[in-house]
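Section 5.1 Outputs to date
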Amino acid sequence: MNRLSGYKGEQSMDFHLQFLPEDYFFIFHYVRLPDEYGYFQLDFLLLSHHFFLIMEVKNIHLNMNFDNMGQAFRNRDGEVELFENPVEQVNLQHIRLLNWLRKYNFPPVPIEKIVVYSRDDTYLRNIANDKVISAIVMHRDKVIPKIKSFMKKYQSPLISETELMELSYQLLKEQKDEADDGMNKFNISYNDLVKGVFCTKCGTFPIMWKNGLWRCHVCGTTSKKAHLSTLADYALLVKIYINNREMREFSQLKSVYTAKRLLQQEGFEQYGSTSGRRYKINLEKLLEAEVHI
């Protein structure tokens, strides 16, 4: 859910970035590159002949406070919730990107960075009155004016068209997505997983499908959508593709036809035919649906 929230925040920036000059920037969304310390990730990287820009996007509601101890925190229902300081986070990204660029001998180009809170209802407070925070941290409606100020600041081209294309190619070549391999992450095997669908009200596990509904024998709750959480678990822990047999085994369904109907009614992309048919689980859709089950 945290990753989905971040993804939604990044998606919300697409509308604003489309107002930038079309021929001025190469815009990369979700850049994950290797270096000697592992991998570092940039939500957005904008490349131009004059300067580069790192954009870190946050999707946090209520409030975000920055104090004189370098702490970023939120007050929520009387509790203080600490977060990684995004200013320090983007500063580290700057250093790692700079080292990565030097590794391939690209010419020195100024690198700017900003932290963008994508929700309009997030209340930002610079308690420390730190000028660096005021310059870097902003709401999304301030992004375009900020980028235009960089365009005005940097007038001279510092990297050629050929070098910029080579840089873009190298970025795409080294880009590596983070694997959704939950079982390896937690050092468990498929046989360790408890199969079945759980009751969304009392947590009883497993519940059975009967007469077109999932029915809990403990609290009596019925549901047509309780299996969505199970499918989301399968996608996160096992793999994003599932066939009829795997659906029946993981949800403890007995009927081939019921499993087929439940998979098809979600509108998942299908590959293959007859017994070789696989369904691509739409994880984003399932995680959103969990809220309403």
